[in-house]
Amino acid sequence: MTMRRLPQQPGEVIDRSQPLKFTWNGKPAVGYQGDTIASAIAAGDNRIMSRSMKYHRPRGLLTADFWDPNAFVQVDDEPNVRSGHRLLTNGIDVGPQNVWPSLDYDVKAANQLVGRFLSPGFYYKTFIHPQKLWPAYEKVLAQFAPGGTVDYESEMAYFDKRYTHPDVVVAGGGPAGLAAATAAAEAGASVLLVEHEHHLGGHLRYGTEDDRALANGLELAARSAGVEILLDSTVTGRYEDNWLGIVQRSHPLASERLVKARAKTLIVAAGLIERPYVFEGNDRPGVMLASAARRLINMYSVKPGDRAVVLTANESGDQTVADLERAGVKIAEVVDARAGGNVTATAGSQKAVESVTLGDGSTRDADLLITAVGWTAPTSLLNMSGDRPVYDPAGARFFPDRTPDNVLVTGGIAGDGTLDQIVEHGRETGALAASRALAVAHRLQALTARAMPVSDPEPAMAPDARTPLGRDPHPELYRSTTHGIVDYSEDVGSKDLVSATKEGYDSVELLKRYTTATMGPAQGKLETVNTVAVLAEARGETIAEVGTTIWRPPYAPLTLGALAGRIFEPERVSSVHSWHVANGAKPILAGQWIRPEHYGNPQAEVTNVRENVGIIDISPLGKLDLQGADVPKLLNLLYTNKWSKLGVGSVRYGIMCAEDGVVMDDGVTGRISENRWLMTTTSSGAGSVWEWAENWLQTAHPDWDVHITPVTTSYTSINVAGPKSRELLSRLTDVPLDNDSFDYMQVRPGTVAGVEDCIMWRIGFTGELSFELHVPAGYGLHVWEALMDEGADLGIKPFGLEAQRIMRLEKGHFIVGQDTDGLTKAPTTGLQPLIKLDKDDFAGKPELAWAMGQGVGDAADAAGMDLPVLVSVQMTDSSIVPPEASQIVRPNTNEILGRITSSRYSPTLKASIGLAQVPPSHASSGTQLTVLLTNGDRTTATVQQHHAHFDPDGLRLRS
Amino acid sequence: MVSFRKSNPGPVRYSAATLARKGLSGDDWPRVWRDHDLRKTYDVIIIGGGVHGLATAYYLATNHDITNVAVLDKGYLGGGGSGRNTAIVRSNYLTPEGVAFYDRSLTLYNSMAADLNINVMFSERGHMTLAHTDSALRTMHWRAEVNKLQGIDSSVIDPQEVKKICPSLDITSHPRYPILGALHHPPGGIIRHDAVVWGYARGADHAGVHLHQKTEVLDILCEGGGLADGKGAGGKVTGVRTNRGDISAPIVVNCTAGWGSLISNMAGVKLPIVTHPLEAAVTEPVKVFLPAVVVSGSLHVYVSQTDRGELVFGASVDPLATYSMRGSLSFTEELAGHILELMPGISKMRLLRQWAGLCDMTPDYSPIMGFTPVEGHLTDVGWGTYGFKAGPVSGEQMAECIATQQTPKLIAPFKLSRFETGELVGEKGAAAVGH
């Protein structure tokens, strides 16, 4: 194998003292520290890097950078690695993607033979009959999907995130970006410079000796001025108010890091991307852009070919000729497009260019064709800033139009000039950005900071007094007189685009969707303008008339890992959690919480509560501390019942409805003192009820004196339930607990087990005499253990969620979201008495007033609306507990009438009990229901008189 | 039902044989649809050239012989929700109304390739809704029971069966929200959404319907109504004003999404719609490894892999109402986090592109279809996050509604007046992230 590595080049970035071993395409290979994977492969005289997506044509390096559509490789378990950009590391296994059986002999290249039938969208036009064969065709087509192979069994790599708030972010570290960053930093701004490549200097890095000297000087100045520099990083997205997503691909610890920056001003100095030329055979290995050849020679010391034809339309192309000559490449012809020269085709084998046909029809023997036909302005960040760049035919590219005050543009993307002019424009842009950042900073400070109030007036946004860059004339070179590939990654040619246009897919969006041009991994960086140019030509319009597609984020693809970062999915546990674990609790996930489902035998836990005393950790219960004179107004607004007269020391149960009258949450609120209330919500409603209340306060009633503090995790909540609960608690507190001093539905603050500031209230979710304790969370475990110790002789046992679910069902209490659903209006839950339509107003009142006027909730009046009603049911056969979600059907049919929403075997009643939603016609006591079990069997159930199966008069909880 | 299977929806029949002939001769394909001047009068004007509007036009022409029809779109065909959705179709809804409706849609999708003579690449690969919590599992069982009684293939499967279908899913107990089971719906799948749009457009055009792109409706012209300019209840429509001139028509159908309430407001009809963006994203292609559509309600994400190898992701609607269609960074961050909870092995796959579409949300997450208080103004709007799935059946039923001037039974539950009578449709639970 011939090595194509050149002797040391003056600007090379490789370290020849650090050889690196790797494998390419199954064979051992070597490169140097500083090589990209592609440059190392090219140095080993490998011309073929990949096979094309559709026709599996051999492909060689085209741009030799991040965007190279022909240089995607698999590196170990990582698919779609951009080898033109990724640095070589020792020991990696690099392979081609989407080839079978191998890169050199790919059987799918047979697709080329039928290429004339594979016109754009051919798959829409065939495989239609017979339809039953389509799934088989589909499997075959899926085999042709491009890309590498993901190893989904691999471990998730380490990723991270960072937040930063610089005054100025500069996207692009070429001459203009470096100058801008330096000037902004010198003006006192904090500056973050983000460079896509591994080196600063942009195109200067692969330019002349003078270019490199300038780049080095600019880099030194930027570093001295204190600019923070991120290399191998890209500003991938610009969102509202300069919220920037930056992907940092090289990081000492993380595979990739997402840097999220709120920039006061953003400078877009993204430079220009060299554009390929469309002609016959333009994807044959050996056809290369000028910038690619200069990168290979000047940075990586790789000789790109032996005998070259150069098509040049600009200075960059001209300079490439000199570089090639220095590298020992023979120049077969320099074709000057400015003087009317053209290239129409390459010829040769599938794997290499052998000759080039010029515009005059003559041919030149060559193995390398270099094109320098102009640039695409990567206006992605400008699109994301609301700009719609405008095409200028004289300059043969798009230029920025209007950007917001906090987004400035400089460098090649903004215009042309000498290097001095570009650098000067960068400096002026940096100074302007720094001064505008001051105005933005002042505005932000005035908006948000109360601690450091701003008194002086906001400085004016500095006007743009920069000397604008010029526009050099450049010939419009998109397609030659022949047809060739436009989108290399999608294997779409200009002929395909023309035929799709003629077929009616004649706007840029339709064309894109039909042919998939611009939809591949480069996302249009190389091919969008050529696509538009071909479409314009086919329509007989100008590029400006046709317009482009809008570039959407991300500018450069980034890993899912970087976006996810260190995945943060919080777990919530109560302060008693360690005790639960030590005592054999079976955990259950309940939203964010992990809590005990039971401690071994939930049925026995129920019996123990009914006979002795049990305690349950109910810390996930949502808790809001409400303070202020207007709290009763808020309670009256949120709950359907009345709260004005709730005295100090009392608690009350209420239900909350959304504006459509649907039950949203329920719970108990107690008045602790004159101006302080504690509200409890369902566990899952803890967050949403807080937001709901704040929403009302902040939007409808900002004048109310109410302060809400969420205290769900500030308290450990323990329910002490059972006939012996009073005796147990009396051993731990001085608060009198007899019925006269502390009645059902009352609340007392007090000291429990030596812990001050506990809140106790008497309610009865389980149906037993019970005291709900809210204990400062730091002492939760202590109080829990004290209860267990003191209650030993009373037969105390802990109980879990399952026992509580059984007991609440025995009492007929519904659970919002389980027994109710997105359409359950409050009156249908059996709680009509809690809906006080004579109140001034409450959330959901108009809807409920209307619904109840229609007879909703009044089972006796089935003439009203036919909304399902919640009822208690008992199964005829106590040995059958129908699975929740079992359907209630009309006898001997499959017609759905309702469903079982909750069901359990009741150890207290020795019965199979449940709650069900049924139509009003089936809601009256004694109605027989047919329940269709999930296994297909049918059983019967009877509607009960009361929701409570057990102790309907509530004697036990008042005892 | 009128059979249109034998009709030929294009000037040239698509088949392998035609493909071969064209390939050999090098002849151009005829235009898939044609441009026309605006007529002064149409029998029916349909606003919105997406799958709903085009399907309505197609079925008007093919099922009911009403061909003096115009479809107006302010942009290009299929440029709104039809081209921005994640192309998932299924019928395992929660309510009998929902199930019956979407099942008909799935039936039409199943025979669409033959009916429209275009390969819409319906990939019936199965649809799995994962359950990570007890309560989610309970809802799955509920849906499965309802589906079973409606004759829909849908059942709850355990984690091992989930793993068998999609080996890339992590079913261990390590994730914060482990997979406890799934609702598996084998007939669900994905489809090439653009092909559906083009198929209906081609068929409608061939049947004589005029498709007008870049034709923006500026106003709906009315007379006799109680509001200004004769708009509002009690009045009737007389036509539309567009950027290309006025057109008269006795029937103007609103088949838009994202701007549904603004369009009907032009006729003085207020719709209970709030518009939210729904974001989506796609990765670079990799070799196919994910064989089914996977949805996780708890993690607010759904994902499928196209035959091109890209993973397509979506989530629930953005919380704030806006007409902006810009993607957000936080969306992609949350999305990636949730996807990697499900499939930690794909952390090095790269996100290629993100976008957003607009969803017209109604109070009960069900559409608003049929007649309005303004005579001649009909709507097929309010499709929330699930309009694409319903495109064919909506078109079929709306066409019947227009042709017969009677509300067909299948769409009767979705009438506008339900918001006055309170007879809402309970799909909120099933549709919130229900792709």
Key words describing this protein structure:
heterodimer, A: 959 residues, alpha+beta, six-stranded mixed β-sheet, six-stranded antiparallel barrel, 26% strand, elongated, B: 435 residues, alpha/beta, D-Amino Acid Oxidase, Chain A, domain 2, eight-stranded mixed β-sheet, 29% helix, 22% strand, globular, disordered N terminus, disordered C terminus
How would you summarize the topology of this molecule?
The complex is a heterodimer of chains A (959) and B (435).
Chain A: E1 15-24, E2 27-33, H1 37-43, E3 50-51, E4 58-59, E5 72-75, E6 78-82, E7 93-96, H2 134-143, E8 160-164, E9 168-171, H3 175-186, E10 191-194, H4 209-224, E11 228-230, E12 233-239, E13 243-248, E14 257-262, E15 265-268, E16 273-274, E17 287-289, H5 290-299, E18 307-312, H6 315-326, E19 330-336, E20 343-349, E21 352-358, E22 363-365, E23 368-372, E24 375-376, H7 380-384, E25 390-392, E26 397-399, E27 407-409, H8 419-448, E28 485-487, E29 492-493, H9 494-503, H10 508-515, H11 528-539, H12 543-546, E30 558-559, H13 560-564, H14 577-582, E31 586-590, E32 593-598, H15 602-611, E33 614-617, E34 622-627, H16 631-638, E35 651-657, E36 663-673, E37 676-681, H17 686-700, E38 707-710, E39 715-721, H18 725-730, E40 747-752, E41 755-762, E42 770-776, H19 780-790, E43 797-798, H20 801-810, H21 845-853, E44 869-875, E45 887-889, E46 896-906, E47 911-918, E48 928-932, E49 938-943, H22 955-958
Parallel strand pairs in A: 1-7, 8-14, 9-10, 9-15, 10-11, 15-27, 17-23, 18-19, 18-23, 33-43
Antiparallel strand pairs in A: 1-2, 3-4, 5-6, 5-7, 12-13, 13-14, 16-24, 20-21, 21-22, 25-26, 28-29, 31-32, 33-39, 34-37, 34-38, 35-36, 36-37, 39-42, 40-41, 41-42, 44-47, 44-49, 45-46, 45-48, 46-47, 48-49
Helix pairs in contact in A: 3-4, 3-8, 5-6, 9-11, 15-20
Chain B: H1 16-25, E1 44-47, H2 51-64, E2 69-72, H3 81-84, E3 88-89, H4 96-110, H5 112-116, E4 127-131, H6 134-149, E5 155-157, H7 159-165, E6 181-185, E7 189-190, H8 193-206, E8 210-212, E9 217-223, E10 236-242, E11 245-248, E12 251-254, H9 260-265, E13 274-283, E14 293-296, E15 301-305, E16 311-314, H10 329-342, E17 350-361, E18 368-371, E19 377-381, H11 391-404, H12 418-421, H13 428-431
Parallel strand pairs in B: 1-2, 1-12, 2-8, 4-14, 12-19
Antiparallel strand pairs in B: 3-7, 4-6, 5-6, 9-10, 10-11, 13-16, 13-17, 14-15, 15-16, 18-19
